[in-house]
Amino acid sequence: MPSPPDSVAPRPPVLVIAHRGASGDRPEHTLAAYRLAIEQGANVIEPDLVITRDGVLVARHENEISETTDVASRPEFAGRRTTKTIDGEERAGWFTEDFTLAELKTLRAVERLPALRPASAAYDGRFGVPTLNEVIALAQEMGEARGRPVGLYPETKHPAHARALGLPLEEPLVAALHAAGYTSAEDPVWIQSFEVGSLERLDGLTNLRLVQLAHPGGAPADRPALGYDEMMTPEGLGGVAQYADAVGVAKAFVLGDRLAPTPLVADAHAAGLAVHVWTVRAENAFLPAPLRSSSDPAALGDVAAEVRALVAAGVDGLFTDHPALVLAALGRGVTSGRW
């Protein structure tokens, strides 16, 4: 009688990554948004990282902060408004690298999408700008209280720009994570970037997992001749696997017309890379037309159907502004935190 086939290891639960915290319900990148995401059951919280003039890493989606703080209404900082060229694009506003941490701490966070998220906008002015160390402390404190790890998924934002200013992101990021006890690929940390050079530098600094971000039609700011479309081919993914452990890709790389899966997940897995996809958002404005509930862009659509399609495509993780809704779609309550 032939031997029975070896059992196939069960697929790990899909990682639920709180995109900027529970940013569908609270102003993004605030301790309140991260706290709510953990309470809702997210496995991981995601701080995008920029840097202050005095070299402190803080959580903001961009180094230009007029959309996410009240800086434009603060007369004492009116003279800080300026125009800069960042990653080849001209931008006007207020930039974190022109503020000390003490000055940033006087600012208050605001909702970036108030027309779509008025309930979150009701919290404008209540919360400040957190440092990376404050985010780490929150994750560890809440994880310990719940008996489960709360992972961290920091992103280096415009790292080549920051390094050119003499304010590199990678070294202080790794120092903070290592000091907090995160040192190995088994720890619940993923460091992500759109820039190849930042990830290659990180690969020489740490054993923590690294993630190459990508969106269709774009290219790394530090390698503009190397398009993301090319990087997400089987050959390109083999190159990414030389320095990264996963790819973090826009939904369009994973789902095509009528939510049909593309070859990307299978190709990435064949290269030894996990696939984390962004961004699952519940409002009609962010859903494909067949899943919208009405013509109101702020109304919630059938986000559960999108989650099911992404899971069926084989993704390993989902970035979401709405952890509670995604966990419900996955049939999970407050998660155990297994990676």
UniProtKB/TrEMBL annotation:
<feature type="domain" description="GP-PDE">
    <location>
        <begin position="14"/>
        <end position="330"/>
    </location>
</feature>
<comment type="similarity">
    <text>Belongs to the glycerophosphoryl diester phosphodiesterase family.</text>
</comment>
<keyword id="KW-0378">Hydrolase</keyword>
<keyword id="KW-0732">Signal</keyword>
<dbReference type="Pfam" id="PF03009">
    <property type="entry name" value="GDPD"/>
</dbReference>
<dbReference type="InterPro" id="IPR030395">
    <property type="entry name" value="GP_PDE_dom"/>
</dbReference>
<keyword id="KW-0319">Glycerol metabolism</keyword>
<protein>
    <recommendedName>
        <fullName>glycerophosphodiester phosphodiesterase</fullName>
        <ecNumber>3.1.4.46</ecNumber>
    </recommendedName>
</protein>
<dbReference type="InterPro" id="IPR017946">
    <property type="entry name" value="PLC-like_Pdiesterase_TIM-brl"/>
</dbReference>
